[in-house]
């Protein structure tokens, strides 16, 4: 494949009945607190789904998708909003260490491919209890939030001003400190979505830090 190493990656898939029609797709915070990019994939759940991008359409992003169809947008470097007239899913693939941490010495570059799924806005929560393993060098929580929301992490207000995405939502990128066992509690005055990620030398993880699992979509056709 023209690469020195390849990874096997997998992720638990959300039940189709919990998929939504509104997502904010955010670039995972990199190991140096920067925003480099990720690879985005869109999964269709119903035929004839029309997609729109209120804040701007990424290159290669589709405007329609059918049940069972998978569309790879490719590498995306900006956060964006996507809505549909029917439910669908969005996946995210983290880049490797040579792209995320190119200035580090060979053998010390932080990062590795990892897969996650975006959480539908319809399934956002006001409280999360999540884990950030303490054996990684650095971890972050990316919070997609209404810009008027107040958020606390482990009992203290986050000291980060969210960067606007679209439609009154922004993203706050917060570095996580060490806690006993790696557990954290996030609370908000409004429903928010979170992605949790961490890095070490040629290793990483990323996952949605929680979501409601309300049945809000029909099952896909057989």
What would your notes on this structure say?
With 222 residues, the protein is mainly β. It has one domain (16-208). Helices cover 2% and strands 45% of the residues. The chain is built from 1 helix and 15 strands; from the N terminus they run E-E-E-E-E-E-H-E-E-E-E-E-E-E-E-E. It has one helix at residues 97-100; strands at 20-25, 38-44, 49-52, 64-65, 70-76, 80-94, 115-117, 125-131, 138-146, 151-153, 156-157, 163-166, 169-175, 183-200, 203-208. Strands 8, 9, 10, 11, 12, 13, 14 and 15 form an 8-stranded antiparallel beta sheet that branches. The protein starts with 19 loop residues before the first strand and ends in a 14-residue tail after the last strand. The model has no long low-confidence stretch (mean pLDDT 94).
Fold topology:
Layout: E1 20-25, E2 38-44, E3 49-52, E4 64-65, E5 70-76, E6 80-94, H1 97-100, E7 115-117, E8 125-131, E9 138-146, E10 151-153, E11 156-157, E12 163-166, E13 169-175, E14 183-200, E15 203-208
Antiparallel strand pairs: 1-6, 2-5, 2-6, 3-4, 3-6, 6-7, 8-14, 9-13, 9-14, 10-11, 10-14, 12-13, 14-15
Query: Given the C-alpha coordinates, what overall shape results?
Result: globular
Radius of gyration: 17 Å
Count of helical stretches: 1
Number of domains: 1
